[in-house]
Every structure is written in structure tokens, then in C-alpha cells.
Amino acid sequence: MKEPLKILLYGYGNPGRQDDGLGIAFVDRIKEWVNVEGLTGFDFDSNYQLNIEDAATIAEKDIVIFADASIEDMDDFCLSAVDGTKDVTFTTHAASPGYIVQLCEELFDHTPPVYLLHIKGYEWEFMEGLTGQAQKNLDAAIEYFQNLLKHPEILLQTHLTGLKTCD
Prior knowledge:
alpha/beta, Rossmann fold, five-stranded mixed β-sheet, 4 helices, 5 strands
């Protein structure tokens, strides 16, 4: 029997700042669904922000999907490929997905396909709970990924044709 792909879903953001918690909410909901479905090969993580140590974690995976809230102009959610050539930033408070990918390549000479799920958020005040529209966007992203994660080999393709991309 073929071994399942090793897939990491990693949500980041601050659930104490309304819609900033979308990435973590996404991972929590997908984790519940994966367990109910009995799917294997999945790992889950979440944090307030990405850290340089995450480069070691992603080096061990076949596919990585980061999930985060977004203020971008989009309908509800979209998916983008992440590599170490763009959006490569690091401060003492945050590391971008691109920086984690670049670090992974430099330290481990390996980088799996990495994607960023952008989920549209609206409010960022210091209070818990997603806004109604952000919850609808999360629900749409969950439904989309439930179908996609049943066939994750699609994410191994070098092009994202047919996927809901941010382009």
C-alpha cells in the first residue's frame, strides 16, 4: 500500500483580534474533519506568528499549507504558492512564509511545495470571535479544502491550474 503524503496545515494569527484568528480557526476545523474522515498523513500546528524553527518542521513534509487572515481585495479566500524568492521578510516579531521557505532550502537543501491560504477578514479589534462575513469566508475555505485534501496529490503539480488562486 502506498504511504500517504505528509501534509502540514499551519494556521497563524491572533484569535484575540477578531478576524485575525481565521488561520487558526481554519486549522482547527480541518483537523476535526480529518479525524472524522479517518484521513492519515496530516499534521497540524498553529501559532500567533511563524517562527524560524518552522523551517525544520516544513523540511520533513511533502506539502505545507499555511493559513492566515488577509486584508487583500478578494471575494472570500484564495491560494498562492510560496517560494523563497518573494515576500521574504523577517523581523524580531514575525517571519513571512517566504522567509521560512528560504530558510528551509538554505538549511535543509529541501523545500516541499508550500502554499498560503489567504482568508478575507474585516475586523481586527481586540476581542475574540470572528465577524459574520469572515465566518462565511472560513466556511467557504473549509468546503473547498475538504474536497482538495481528499486528493492532495493535486498540490504536487508545478502549476495551480484549476485551483482557486490569488492571481
